[in-house]
Amino acid sequence: xxxxxxxxxxxxxxxxxxxxxxxxxxxxxxxxxxxxxxxxxxxxxxxxxxxxxxxxxxxxxxxxxxxxxxxxxxxxxxxxxxxxxxxxxxxxxxxxxxxxxxxxxxxxxxxxxxxxxxxxxxxxxxxxxxxxxxxxxxxxxxxxxxxxxxxxxxxxxxxxxxxxxxxxxxxxxxxxxxxxxxxxxxxxxxxxxxxxxxxxxxxxxxxxxxxxxxxxxxxxxxxxxxxxxxxxxxxxxxxxxxxxxxxxxxxxxxxxxxxxxxxxxxxxxxxxxxxxxxxxxxxxxxxxxxxxxxxxxxxxxxxxxxxxxxxxxxxxxx
Length: 318
Ligand SMILES: Cc1cc2nc3c(=O)[nH]c(=O)nc-3n(C[C@H](O)[C@H](O)[C@H](O)COP(=O)(O)O)c2cc1C
Known about the structure:
Blueprint: H1 4-9, E1 15-17, H2 26-34, E2 40-42, H3 48-61, E3 67-71, H4 77-85, E4 90-94, E5 109-114, H5 117-125, E6 130-134, E7 140-141, H6 148-159, E8 164-167, H7 173-181, E9 186-189, H8 191-194, H9 203-211, E10 217-220, E11 232-235, H10 238-245, E12 260-263, E13 269-271, E14 283-284, H11 306-317
Parallel strand pairs: 1-9, 2-3, 3-4, 4-5, 5-6, 6-8, 8-9
Antiparallel strand pairs: 7-11, 10-11, 12-13, 12-14
Helix pairs in contact: 2-3, 3-4, 5-6, 7-11
């Protein structure tokens, strides 16, 4: 299926891989790009040298273009400039007003994630060439309180000729095809790509998504150590239950706050309520950590390759 979105980025399939801090690395981004979709590499967590090295590692695996993911509220202009100097031509901004970041974008193209009509208008005024409408169903950090179908209609209303990509709760190729039938020019899959062969997520985290039943995600402020006051959707687990049972108290009053839950490969201790998800080389109580997942988790039952996810979606589009 070809449309304004695929033409804009020279894609074979109107699919976007959701940027996922620590979980989506060069292998995943390159696999999606090589399969004909748009990969987005998160670099907003990285110092400049690490970001540059991850961009170069991705470029070594694909000659297709891909985007990098930047946090707008942190105004990461140095990171944007470093990405562009390394050869990136698509900048994806999320969380907040893009206005202060755009001076660094120059000739590169900007995509913005938006959660309501006003944010869409601000992104368009800042020069966005495509919008990602992220509904409340989405895994990870999510500003919107609007379900994706209603949000998509709102954003299409203001977007004009600018393509709108739908995100949130899409787990299957059929979910995606449905959103295309509602007017989306493309579909973004996050959690679906967290559970694929090239994802950096810990195997126990992938398995927890595979085993998740309906209504086993929660949008909350539970995992706020490292990024506070930012609503996010995760699987319900021992940490969310502990916090919920205590009446969802604020930082400083939460049960088990000092508990060591997991450790990174470099030995860094991550305490209960840390924002960091468990990745392949994390050790400890994996299932008590922040396991970000969208409401579609219950429909994810396998761990295919990224290329198979892209191909299934392409087939569903007919
Ligand atoms: C593990 C995980 C980490 C995420 N990290 C980021 C991030 O670093 N930057 C970002 O823009 N969005 C992030 N998100 C949100 C996704 O890019 C995307 O909007 C969301 O996953 C779509 O909903 P779905 O998971 O239901 O498909 C994350 C999502 C997940 C599941």
